[in-house]
Amino acid sequence: MSERDPALMGITEMARESGVSVSDLRNWEARYGVPRPERSKSGRRLYSMSDKETVIRVLALRDAGLSLTGAINQTRKAGPFGEGGGTGDVSLFATLRRSNPDLSVHVLDKRTLLALTRAIEDCCFAAAQRPILLGAFQDQRYYRASRSRWRDMARSSLCAITFATSSAASQSTNDETGEPIVNISISAGSPLSREWALICDGVERPACVVGWERPGQEARPDPARVFETLWSVDPSVVRQASRVAWSIAARHQPDVRGIDDILAERTVPAARMDALHVTELLGRTLEYLATAA
To answer: Please, what CATH class does the domain formed by 92-292 belong to?
Structure first.
């Protein structure tokens, strides 16, 4: 691969994107052979998105209580996506939290999280900018409850992808609108099976929200289930979320890999916190909560 390949990054960028220091990346490579970067003609380390996903997977396993050696060994056994008994999927929540430590974590019940999700959808599509739309619904039945709304949004989207667990979920469906909504079926062992997410990656009013469901809530009523939640209108954070989600989708279903070309054509605006955008977003959220109450 060429040193100019946009899929490759140097060790400094890799450290920033993965949350592992430059010295630790070198130590992991020397001691464990993970990750395995390519080398440029000048000897500079060049890391791929797969290398980044491997490192993030190791970190997630360490957070779950494994030693570094155990986490690396389990990652090796998992192999590529869907092989060796592992899902290969990474956690959207853990990736964003580790890469953006300044983002606040809010504990929200599902009713509030759903209101925020709906508000982001409304703000995003009010701008009429044909966003890249991605959603994680945990289980297919939750997607079915929102399917008619997603069909409407797909008409105005550049593309739309959903993730949900279901043994009967189709890998790809075309809705009656003619706009493709790609359904990615994930396993119950995937980190995404515990996550609720919406990513609206548009030129105007980009936003994302990702929630991780706390364990042990089987006895709770569905609206009262609690999620640790991150949300942002920072274009760079939204773009990072869309890249991670799309990398998961592409490994489950290779024919969606063209997103790299789409993202390359869309320059990420300078990081900003648009006060009017946030005000509108919070206002719409409160309206949904009031209606639900």
So the answer is: alpha beta
Handedness of CA 26, 9, 76, 187 (dihedral sign): positive
Per-residue pLDDT tens digits for 63-120? 656 788 888 887 776 554 333 334 567 788 888 887 788 888 999 999 999 999 999 9
Q: Are 222 and 213 in contact (CB under 8 A)?
A: no
Spatial CA neighbour of 242 closest among 260, 255, 254: 260
Read off φ and ψ for residue 33, nearest 5 degrees: 75, 20
Q: Taking the domains of the chain in order of start, what are their residue ranges? A: 11-78, 92-292
d(CA 229, CA 111): 13
Rounded distance, CA 16 to CA 18, Å? 6
The b/e string for 233-247 (b: 16+ C-beta within 10 A; e otherwise) is bbbebbbbbbbbbbb
Q: Which CATH class is domain 11-78?
A: mainly alpha
Two tokens at 215? 């364990």
> Mean pLDDT over residues 11-34, rounded?
89
- pLDDT, residue 78, reads 57
**pTM of full prediction above 0.90:** no
| CB-CB contact of 205 with 174 (8 Å) | no
Could you tell me the pLDDT band of residue 1, with boundaries at 50, 70 and 90? very low
Residue 204: closest CA among 230, 158, 240, 235: 235
For residues 212 and 227, the answer to whether their CB atoms sit within 8 Å is yes
Say whether pLDDT at 262 is over 90.
Answer: no
Which pair of structure tokens corresponds to residue 131?
């966003």
Q: Which two tokens stand for residue 40?
A: 């440029």
CA distance 189 to 17: 25
